[in-house]
Design brief:
263 residues, alpha/beta, UDP-N-acetylmuramoyl-L-alanine:D-glutamate ligase, six-stranded mixed sheet, 23% strand, globular
Length: 263
Amino acid sequence: MTISLTIAGSDPSGGAGIQADLKTFSALGAYGMSVITALTAQSTQGVDAIFSIPASFVRQQFSSIAQDSQIESLKIGMLMDREIVLAVSQILEQSTIHYIVLDTVMVAKGGHPLLTSDAIDAIRDYLLPKATIITPNLPEAAALLACGEATNETQMCEQGMELLKLGCQAVLMKGGHLVSDESPDYLITQQQIIRLTTERIRTKNTHGTGCTLSAAIAALLPQMPLFEAVKNAKNYLSGAIEHADSLKVGKGIGPTHHFYRWW
């Protein structure tokens, strides 16, 4: 069994962040470990407060587990501020983790900001060049490139190729914000551009979908090639969304069903 690590914020409602990542790792056959960057007070109805963990303690959490275990893949999620971004960059420079999935988390599903403005440049400059793959949605891609948000699939591909120039090995442009019956994503590498799509599922319960997808890719990368990992991760997420309404969790935007294959 491979070990996958998530560096992200905590979601006490269990639908996103560290909690969603660990559920996803378990569902896809990886042993999950975590480094927490921020504590949130939130529910399915939104984020009420955020408490940032000191960057020095983020480094200490990683140091403790890295000295004891061989981590094969890493998912990076909510980083909160520039100091934590720089701390994670230092962690990557000192580690031998082979697969790095960067989920450029900036805003919660309900609209609450999860990243300070001065941290966006730091993510672009220090983390993107170290990533095996990044998984931005359309607003996040626009923020990283300091441009307007893509409104069609052609613009999605163009922005993905611009992000690739910043040094990452691959970009998964997520098209969930487009208005269409499908939910198209584009996997972009130096060698090819691949369109991946599933039928858009009509449900309000999509809390933590970005976290779940990036964690799924991280869990699967040590097990299979990049394209297969992305395709299988997207299929897993589609199933989790399809079964989300069966959970009946909370009064707002509920979570996806990470264990739909078992219960």
